[in-house]
From TrEMBL:
This is Acyltransferase. It comes from the Bacteria. SMART domains: PlsC. Pathway: Lipid metabolism. It comes from Mariniphaga anaerophila. Keywords: Acyltransferase, Transferase. GO terms for molecular function: 1-acylglycerol-3-phosphate O-acyltransferase activity. PANTHER family: 1-ACYL-SN-GLYCEROL-3-PHOSPHATE ACYLTRANSFERASE, PHOSPHOLIPID_GLYCEROL ACYLTRANSFERASE DOMAIN-CONTAINING PROTEIN. Pfam families: Acyltransferase. GO terms for biological process: phosphatidic acid biosynthetic process. Residues 27-136 form the Phospholipid/glycerol acyltransferase domain.
Length: 183
């Protein structure tokens, strides 16, 4: 799959800038998230460099035959119904696995949002795992994993620093109007 993924990325015109995260457990932030294609491109990217990442997907998507492919691409079913606590479920996953690189988007949707979600921050703090910044820049067609992002105890300040990082890099989503780094 590694060579096929690298071939498909090149065929689609993408360049790779990154590495497989060295820690066995981490959260990899993916931004900007403006298209369902971000999932496909990021899957091809991480696979092409030899990594295996997971994503949280609502359990309703795990029906035959779709569920088979979602699992193969790293999907983990998550229960979002009747008071289910996604953060608690995710911390439990980290605590019960030896390896998990979890890709998450702080925007929480493909629509334009000013207020990013801090669930990744809470998960990382409770599971005691690092966070890395990643990006899919549709303007330059470069997909990247950047440096480790050091968290503080102030999630709002950390989200501001994260937005500043993406703004300074000039990263553009597939649908640029759906991405903002405003506070």
């Amino acid at each position: 799959m590694k060579k096929l993924s690298a071939f498909l990325l090149r065929l689609l015109g993408w360049k790779v800038n990154g590495f497989v995260v060295p820690e066995p457990k981490c959260i990899i932030i993916g931004a900007p998230h403006t298209s369902a294609w971000d999932f496909v491109i990021s899957y091809l990217f991480y696979t092409s460099i030899g990594g295996k990442a997971n994503v949280l997907v609502k359990k309703e998507f795990f029906f035959w035959p779709l569920g088979y492919f979602v699992r193969k691409m790293g999907g983990i079913p998550i229960d979002r119904s009747k008071g289910a606590n996604v953060i608690r479920q995710t911390v439990h996953l980290f605590n019960t696995r030896d390896y998990m690189h979890l890709a998450m988007t702080p925007e929480g949707t493909r629509k334009r949002v000013v207020r990013w979600k801090a669930g990744f921050h809470t998960i990382a703090k409770h599971a005691d795992i690092p966070v890395y910044l990643g990006s899919f820049d549709w303007g330059r067609k470069v997909i990247s994993i950047w440096e480790k992002f050091e968290l503080t105890d102030d999630s709002k300040a950390d989200l501001k620093r994260m937005k500043d990082f993406y703004r300074e890099k000039g990263i553009q989503g597939k649908f640029p109007e759906n991405f903002t780094t405003e506070y």
